[in-house]
């Protein structure tokens, strides 16, 4: 077993990732399975019915990606598992960022575990020379605003996660509104919005595919994925300019496939150039009763103003209902300052259900 670090009575043991997926269910995968169990239990406590519980086998491919390092530590107090600590290290050239996450099981909160675990993660980030520490928090819909984002758009409640971030010196850079569209109800507002987008987007046409991406589109798709890191609203959060090519897309698609995810991509083609200039993704784990996730959505900056966001979202919604009949709702997240995309969501019938906070701490 890897060497554990002990903070008072709190022991943090590096999570060993088995060499093969077959090892996940063997003795060597015991801590890995425990870490995924923590992830699932924390998500259920945070997200309720929207929580997507994954098996260790489904999670396994996400720990092996070549495009970032994934590190995890299982936390025990007096021999009992109380949570896990996670660190994601981007591998872009010159990156100074690191993503940190502390997950403490609900029955063990209020004992200072999160504070000690976060300090531990910050020390590990420092060992890697990372000076920009970033983290996400999840919050139920609340009318009590505890901290307002530095963008001036949106706030998160004064709850345990917020207090931990503030006390550790993190600034709330952005608030993301997580919205839900109920697919069991009539979607009377979608067709008029789609027709309006069709009229406004003359010179463009809608295309779609189920992953893997057709060879004819993979280079354009890779370019748009790279622009997610530069064109999407980010406030003062430091973002690496990501480098994507066809090989990176194929690596991501393999992770999707190996983990049981089905992905529908809808895009807008600029007819004159033959290039894709906008896209959205719908993701499903094919589990009845669980939401379909609207993942990345982007219109390239130089092609905005033609209702392409509405074009790709409305068309892909119609296809998604057929492709993913197991899903009874779509969940999506958008920065509160991203009014154009939020306006599209609101016009389609999405309603707010919870909020996410993006936090950042810069080490001098």
Task: Give a structural overview.
By secondary structure, the protein is α+β, with helices and mostly antiparallel strands. The chain is built from 9 helices and 15 strands. Helix 5 (190-200) packs across helix 8 and helix 8 (308-323) crosses helix 9 (339-348). The longest helix has 18 residues, at 30-47. The radius of gyration is 21 Å and the shape is globular.
Please write out the topology.
Elements: E1 5-7, E2 10-14, H1 30-47, H2 56-59, E3 68-77, E4 80-90, E5 97-104, H3 113-127, E6 132-140, E7 147-148, E8 155-156, H4 160-167, E9 171-182, H5 190-200, E10 204-210, H6 215-231, H7 246-258, E11 262-270, E12 275-284, E13 292-299, H8 308-323, E14 329-335, H9 339-348, E15 351-362
Q: What does this entry show, briefly?
A:
The chain is of the alpha+beta class. The protein has two domains: 5-130, Aminopeptidase (3-Layer(aba) Sandwich); 180-355, Gcn5-related N-acetyltransferase (GNAT) (Aminopeptidase).
CATH-wise, what's the superfamily of the largest domain?
Gcn5-related N-acetyltransferase (GNAT)
Characterize the main sheet. 13 strands, mixed
Q: Quick one: how many beta strands?
A: 15
Distance between the termini: 35 Å
The coarse overall form would be globular
């Amino acid at each position: 077993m890897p060497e554990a670090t002990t903070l008072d009575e709190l022991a943090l043991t590096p999570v060993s990732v088995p060499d093969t997926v077959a090892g996940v269910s063997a003795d060597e995968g015991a801590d890995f399975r425990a870490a995924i169990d923590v992830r699932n239990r924390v998500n259920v406590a945070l997200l309720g019915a929207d929580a997507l519980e994954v098996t260790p086998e489904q999670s396994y491919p996400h720990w092996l990606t070549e495009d970032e390092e994934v590190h995890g530590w299982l936390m025990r107090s007096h021999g009992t598992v109380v949570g896990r600590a996670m660190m994601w290290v981007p591998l872009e050239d010159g990156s100074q960022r690191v993503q940190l996450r502390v997950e403490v099981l609900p029955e063990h909160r209020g004992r200072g575990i999160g504070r000690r675990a976060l300090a531990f993660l910050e020390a590990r980030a420092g060992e890697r020379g990372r000076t920009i520490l970033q983290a996400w928090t999840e919050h139920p819909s609340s009318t009590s605003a505890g901290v307002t984002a530095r963008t001036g758009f949106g706030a998160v409640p004064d709850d345990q996660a917020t207090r931990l971030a503030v006390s550790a010196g993190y600034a709330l850079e952005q608030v993301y509104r997580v919205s839900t569209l109920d697919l069991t109800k009539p979607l009377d507002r979608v067709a008029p919005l789609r027709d309006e987008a069709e009229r406004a987007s003359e010179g463009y046409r809608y295309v779609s595919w189920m992953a893997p991406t057709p060879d004819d589109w993979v280079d354009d798709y890779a370019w748009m994925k790279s622009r997610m890191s530069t064109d999407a609203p980010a406030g003062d959060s430091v973002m690496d300019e990501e480098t994507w090519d066809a090989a990176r897309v194929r690596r991501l698609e393999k992770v999707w496939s190996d983990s049981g995810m089905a992905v529908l991509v809808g895009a807008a083609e600029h007819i004159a150039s033959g290039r894709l200039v906008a896209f959205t993704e719908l993701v499903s784990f094919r589990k009845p009763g669980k939401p379909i996730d609207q993942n990345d959505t982007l219109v390239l900056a130089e092609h905005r103003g033609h209702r392409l966001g509405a074009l790709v979202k409305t068309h892909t919604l119609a296809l998604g209902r057929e492709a993913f009949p197991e899903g009874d709702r779509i969940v999506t997240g958008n920065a509160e300052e991203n009014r154009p995309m939020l306006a599209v969501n609101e016009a389609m019938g999405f309603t707010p259900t919870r909020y996410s906070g993006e936090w950042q701490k810069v080490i001098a």
